[in-house]
Amino acid sequence: MSTVGNPANIFWHENPVRKVEREKLLNQQGCVVWITGLSGSGKSTLACSLGRELQSRGKLSYVLDGDNLRHGLNKNLGFSPESRTENIRRTGKCIHKLSIGEVANLFADAGLICIASLISPYRKDRDACRALLPDKKFIEVFMNMPLQLCEDRDPKGLYKLAREGKIKGFTGIDDPYEPPLNCEIELQLKDGVVPTPHEMAGQVVSYMENEGFLEA
Amino acid sequence: MSTVGNPANIFWHENPVRKVEREKLLNQQGCVVWITGLSGSGKSTLACSLGRELQSRGKLSYVLDGDNLRHGLNKNLGFSPESRTENIRRTGKCIHKLSIGEVANLFADAGLICIASLISPYRKDRDACRALLPDKKFIEVFMNMPLQLCEDRDPKGLYKLAREGKIKGFTGIDDPYEPPLNCEIELQLKDGVVPTPHEMAGQVVSYMENEGFLEA
């Protein structure tokens, strides 16, 4: 770190705003609510409902899911040819790419309640995201809805395409969904009925409240 | 969108928390402050100083730069082999990667003042980031410090390595830095003296205040 005879450089560089200060400003604790489950299980709906419930309590959340990420899918905003990746790493010139797990981790570090809504079918991948975060800051929510229900809903028509063989490797059809072994919250049918989004969001908010996430 | 006879699904899904609501909660306007300039020009120092100044005013900011992103550099958190990328896109199963520009855009959408500190030497790349954001929400700050000054500082020892040929394509040595043509803020020497971080942060904050970013 250069000082160039300027003590301010040292001071400022060693005192970035810390997470705890942002959390105090927001009166909440940064974390990731990771909603996993089959396509059509209601992940996005829960994410919206949870975001609204938190907003009504004055808490800042942000939803990461296909809907607000899709715009980036077909853009090539790489800052350099792939061949220069190694150079980029060393010089810090630019721009590696981040996974959703890494982005969610940054949002939590910023103090937000980051609601990630992704099928995320593989246990090891979810666990890798969990491992990025400080202890207890990763809240895994399992939308444990029957495949038949999800396929009957088929909100994007993807099950139909998968059954017709037009999509390969579709979770639940010809690719496995690995249920969580130790998720924080499991949402499922009650007496054969799907809980309302409001009820499910309430269950998550209760957990967060009890665990102290909604105050700093 | 599936409704499954449940009107709540429709309601919630069509009513995610909007940016304007998050901004109202925070009493600020989400935006990106993109600090560009040579290695050693003081980008990270300004980012820290600006973050502290905003925090002292009760404003929520978050710094994206090499320091808080480097942890992700050597991790492989891809959710699937590259060969499955196309399938991933179609099914939304998981996890494409986002560039820093895209991540900064998400933070701005979340209502934060996102401070991105990157050399970002190419004009077209900065302009691509600008184009992601709504009008006037991209504040380009050019750290216009002389190469000689930056090289004398050489805080990470990278100029030395570049001069010795041990790093190829290093900005300012054997790769160009393209100065902004229409940046919002330009910071430079005054009477041959580097302004303090506090002075430079003040200049950015004044701009933001005048443009209405610090209230909702």
TrEMBL record, chains A, B:
GO terms for molecular function: adenylylsulfate kinase activity; ATP binding. Its EC number is 2.7.1.25. Keywords: ATP-binding, Kinase, Nucleotide-binding, Transferase. The keyword ATP-binding applies. Residues 29-187 form the APS kinase domain. The keyword Kinase applies. Pathway: Sulfur metabolism; hydrogen sulfide biosynthesis; sulfite from sulfate: step 2/3. Transmembrane segments: none annotated. PANTHER family: BIFUNCTIONAL 3'-PHOSPHOADENOSINE 5'-PHOSPHOSULFATE SYNTHASE, PAPS SYNTHETASE, ISOFORM D. Belongs to the APS kinase family. Catalyzes the synthesis of activated sulfate. HAMAP family: Adenylyl_sulf_kinase. This is Adenylyl-sulfate kinase. It comes from Solanum stoloniferum.
